[in-house]
Design brief:
The chain is an alpha+beta fold. It contains 6 helices and 7 strands; from the N terminus they run αββαβββααααββ. Helix 3 runs parallel beside helix 5 and helix 4 packs antiparallel against helix 5.
Length: 224
């Protein structure tokens, strides 16, 4: 299956072509063929892994069509029609599980047990968490997701501030804005501002195909 000619011959003969994508012990096998080819390959993979003391996790192993989409390494991958056109492209975006994980992280960071911190310390911590998460997901269709995550984080911070600085009376939204925001409703304290995930620019991954070196990449011929 190493050349286009061999792959074309296999398709003419009714066989499927495969490509393996692996990271540590997580893997996806892309199948250019029919569902029966993918089902048969799953059994073959299980046989190959058995002597290594490994097995496929039933709850994580599925055979799906690319139009249904699947999650891999925190990313949802799915082929969809581009809006306004009749063309289909494969899109990647943060998976629902990944989005929920960062929201849970924000919930823990703004829990009542953290109210002993100063606001600037909390803002710096939240910014680091959101930026790190966004840097991982910035190569997908993630702009709207980043904004949604920031919206969630902002409301968590708002409730944290109102409880911490309430005093005898509930801190009104007007007081909150006057005391703890600098530009509009952006939180700021002692020079530290809330930047969030949206501060990370989305940069779509440039497909490099066979330009990515592997142990099987042929070495260029030497000239002497």
């Amino acid at each position: 299956m190493g050349t286009a000619k061999r792959r074309a011959r296999r398709k003419r003969d009714g066989h499927a072509n495969y490509r393996l994508i692996r990271y540590a012990d997580d893997l996806v096998v892309m199948v250019s063929g029919e569902r029966r080819h993918a089902e048969a390959l799953r059994e073959e993979v299980a046989v190959v892994l058995a002597p290594l003391g490994l097995r496929l996790a039933p709850e994580k192993t599925r055979v799906v069509h690319i139009d249904e989409g699947f999650d891999f390494l925190g990313t949802h991958i799915r082929r969809m029609r581009k809006r306004g056109t009749a063309k289909y492209y494969v899109y990647t975006k943060p998976s629902k599980k990944a989005v929920q994980a960062i929201k849970d992280n924000m919930k823990d960071a703004t829990d009542r047990s953290t109210r002993h911190q100063d606001l600037d310390t909390l803002l710096a911590s939240v910014n680091r968490k959101l930026r790190g998460w966004a840097l991982y997901h910035r190569h997908g269709v993630a702009k709207a997701t980043f904004s949604a995550v920031d919206h969630h984080a902002w409301h968590r911070l708002m409730r944290w501030i109102r409880h911490k600085y309430a005093g005898r009376h509930v801190l009104s939204m007007k007081q909150l804005r006057r005391r703890f925001c600098d530009q509009g409703w952006r939180f700021a304290h002692n020079g530290v501002v809330f930047t969030g995930a949206a501060s990370v620019a989305v940069k779509r991954y440039r497909y490099r195909g066979y330009n990515i070196a592997t142990p099987w990449t042929p070495k260029p011929a030497t000239t002497g």
